[in-house]
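seq as requested:
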Amino acid sequence: MDALTNWLNLKRGEFRKKDHDLEDLEMQVVRYKPEGLDVLCRKSKFTRKELQIMYRGFKQECPTGIVNEETFKEIYAQFFPQGDSSAYAHYVFNTFDHDRNGSLSFEEFVMGLSVLSRGTLQERLQWAFNLYDINGDGFITKDEMTDIVSAIYEMMGRFSEPMVDENTTKEHVERVFHKMDINRDGVITFDEFMETCRRDENITKGMAIFDTVL
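struct tokens:
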């Protein structure tokens, strides 16, 4: 993704100026997460060099090695300065925080970015379903979809198309939800979500799933 690539390039430039010993860096990672960089390379879709750059940036932003939600929101806001990204960042944070302990380890951060930036369509749609399924019960309700769509519009700010008002959000949700709720039972299952997204590319784009991540 462009934003992630730019971030990596920025960090690469910063650390060229004040390079640290890479072996020391790996030992830091090994101490923090016993599996180390090599295992993260195998588990994620990032190269070893990319992980080293990301880890340096991660430690720079979060010296403790842990990201809480407020820090995550601050990082996210740097990518979307034109609007208010706090609500959307909250939902993204929850999808990254697999153990629901209120903080992100470097591994959780990397695995989340790996799916979003380089995952297969199946993996990214699975992530998107989890994002919209706010309470994690396996179904997307209209209220949940409204919450996410509203958060996306707030984040995109003046670049939202069409310009956002309460009716814009309501009409968007009604249109998308109607297409996805194939059996008309008032909720969207994972199978319905996947089938609709695969069948209608405009729906996937219209949900702004992959244009609103780091």
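Residues 2-17 form the longest helix (16 residues).
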